[in-house]
Amino acid sequence: MANIPQFTPNWGAIGNITPFTHRDNATYLTMLHDLSQYLTVTLIPTINEEFSEQRVASTGEVVDLLVQVNALIETLNTTNISAEDALVEIQAINASLPNLNTLISEAESYANAAQLSANGAQLSEDNAQASAAEAATARESLPSTATKRVLDIIHAELTNAEILVVSDSTTNDTNEWVYQLFNQIASDWPKHTVLYRLWNDTNGTYDNPLTLSTGTGTKTLTVFNAAISGGTALTWTGERAKLALYGLDPTLIMLSMGHNEGNISPELWRARYMMLTENLTWNLPNADLLCIMQNPASDNTRQQQRAIIYQEIAVTRGFGFIDVGQAFIDTGNAAALSIDGVHPNAAGTTLWVDTVKPSFKRVKNSAIHNQPESTLSMVGDNLLVNSTFSEGATMLENWVLSGGATSARDTVNFESSELQDRTTGTERATDSTSVKFTAISGASSVLSQWIPTKRLKPGTWVTVAARIFVANGMPVTTARLGFGGNANGSGILNIHASNIVANDGFTWIIHTTQIPENLENFRVLVYIDSGTTTAGACTIDRIVMTPSKLPYGA
Questions:
Q1: Backbone φ/ψ region at 17: left (φ over 0), alpha (ψ -120 to 50), beta
Q2: 3-state secondary structure string, 385-436?
Q3: Span 140-373: which CATH code?
Q4: Residue 498 CB: number of other CB atoms within 10 A?
Q5: For residue 436, what pLDDT is reported?
Q6: Of 52, 107, 249, 381, which is most buried, counting CB atoms within 10 Å of its CB?
Q7: In the chain, where are the structural domains located?
Q8: How many helices (H) and strands (E) does the chain have?
Q9: Is residue 98 classed as helix, strand or coil in its secondary structure?
Q10: What is the pLDDT of residues 188-211, one digit of tens each?
Q11: Which CATH code fits 400-546?
Q12: Are 516 and 494 in contact (CB under 8 A)?
């Protein structure tokens, strides 16, 4: 490790200081200033530079560790695992990561390692055994750590705070759980004024705030409730998302979705939910994401099936989650807690609030929630060739465009370009690498590329992420993703059911599928317009397909 520069004072030893009086040609204020300069100008940059090298070397192992620890914590939260079984799990983690203690010891030597050391502290056997004992004696879930940062910000009273809720008609009324939750806990923050604002889909803005409590201080906490009747994961990926979500600066996002996703395949449930979570974390990187599993429906078990998929995504990505659905099931009569088989009645709302509320009790010195950045910001093993339409001799080299659609460089709506005019700091439209595709009426238009089957292992997953611009007014059949091919002589075609993605701006559209056995051939499909009576158009900046359950952006 590099030598850290030492602090050399220009004054003598400090003792019996009377503030703001002279001592050895310096005032106490001067001493504080000199110390502050040393810390901010010399010490912290040196530590950051040194630790960045350590972080690069250890990132992979730490990410593996976080995935395993998150999985263990969620197991403790949602099962009756014994203390002995929890200890075995922890010992297995320690055995699989022999360098963990070294990593943590080194990290704790640096000021920037606070989060890593806090997560390392979660691995102490005493804490884990205590958590296991608590889970074994009480079925209720432990509070999620995803709320820690926003609670710390509120506690410190340094700035205003925002919480964003993204949901459907189970949360958009004052007699439902979101309003009821924050109305009850507003008094926990007596110095903050707590405001509640509901999204008005007719006006395209949030309603005027309702004041839940008036604080004695100057800071506010605003709860933005982006919830509309019939809302799905796809509802919040288009124009609404730009207006309702991405102009905010929340520290916490609470995502409660599921009821309106319909009777579609589990792969599409996964794709739609992941498309929403990754767009949220990519566009709002400073926010922690807390996934709320909704109550079950009375006439089917699809909510329980979706909850398994959603929880897997949450654990894999490091999101927090609270299983409200399981709390309903544990009563033994979930149907009695609903007014219509979907929307909770008063008793159901009380249970929902009581299940979420413990996560909003601040615990001093509790573990820091460490949520990795969106994988859309990372580079994956791209299976596609010429994925940016700029890597071959021709614009669409290795791609097949069918159905009579046309293509041209988009010099109006583009996101990437080959060159940047560095004299003015702007990108030149003539260097755009984005391509505008326009379908013709009377034919389904598809952009496709075949993937070598040797690159695809049966039983594993592939995920495609496309950065696409869809103008307002385009048909809902525009810009849909799918997979085609043959396995065991049977055709496979899995179109991503897409709607309301028009947003006059670029967004990520994501699809994922599991590779079948005895695969004969396989291709990725981008439907410029899957309809035959419309002529949709979209601009594609890049398409990335990786052998992973997660989407990558490059």
A1: beta
A2: CCCCCCCCCCCCCCCEEECCCEEEECCCCCCCECCEECCCCEECHHHECCEE
A3: 3.40.50.1110
A4: 26
A5: 94
A6: 107
A7: 22-132, 140-373, 400-546
A8: 13, 22
A9: coil
A10: 999 999 999 999 999 999 999 999
A11: 2.60.120.260
A12: no
